[in-house]
Amino acid sequence: MAQMYYDKDGDLSVLKGRTIGIIGYGSQGHAHALNLKDSGCDVIVGLYPGSPSWKKAEQAGLKVASVNDVAQAADIIMMLVPDQIQSQLYEQAIEPHMRAGQTLMFAHGFNIHFDQIKAPPDVDVTMVAPKGPGHLVRRVYEEGGGVPALFAIHQDASEQARQVTMAYAKGIGALRAGVLETTFKEETETDLFGEQVVLCGGITSLVKNAFETLVGAGYQPELAYFECMHELKLIVDLMYEGGMAYMRYSISDTAEYGDYSRGPRIIDEHVRKNMEKVLEEIQNGVFAKEWILENRAGRPSFNAMRRRDAQHPVEQVGAELRGMMTWLKKSKDGGAY
Prior knowledge:
This protein is of the alpha/beta class. The protein has 17 helices and 9 strands. Helices cover 56% and strands 12% of the residues.
């Protein structure tokens, strides 16, 4: 059983006298900054001049400055802008100001693991990665709880990296729920795999293919949407609360029998082989290289795929049906910087 660390394992006094620079004020950025501020830490948010988030952060009672100024002022720099802009931002606005004793921190290991950012040898490089979206990290903290997180120590120049990282995790509320130690390699590779195979790529492809199968067989698109997409949340919520066993306890015996007998015919050995291939491409850097080059080229394939999927019939039908569901709330959180 992996060891979990809790509130008793972190000491906020370690952060006393240290300025924490939060780079970015999007989903994770706003949550980290506000939670740390409420935990009594000295926080300053780094944004580009003219950022629409600048006023928003100031209205929340936070100090805001340019990324260059934050890099000079902060003892701990947490990178919370999207992966694809981190390396350029680091090179232009942060690296020139790095000094011995600073801590460079991340919430995802992509740029360190794939050598897009190379920190000086005299700074600490660590990670605190909440396992939940930023709005949840903030909301649960305000309610007195916390969202679990992963932490990792990549470079410990000061020999205090662990204490500082655990204190940071305590400051955002993660130690209330528990944090698990990992490495930048493990976090990056498992995170990418989960996104591609299950959480995003796997789910959306499964939904689209199931929707197309029903509609192609002559069933109403609205019914296909409800069965293949809308009800997915109900099942995921049950699994989130109590695992697969609780989900199966809560559904009908007919549905449970279909689960056992038909599910493995859909996600079969052929799919498993494809999963292994996707994992191999993550491990050997093929995916990272492809994504890095895609961004350097101006994202032509990414933008084309985004436009194509936005026009998929399941999205058109879903938009109409969700428009009738007045109880739904749309998240406004983004990856603002």
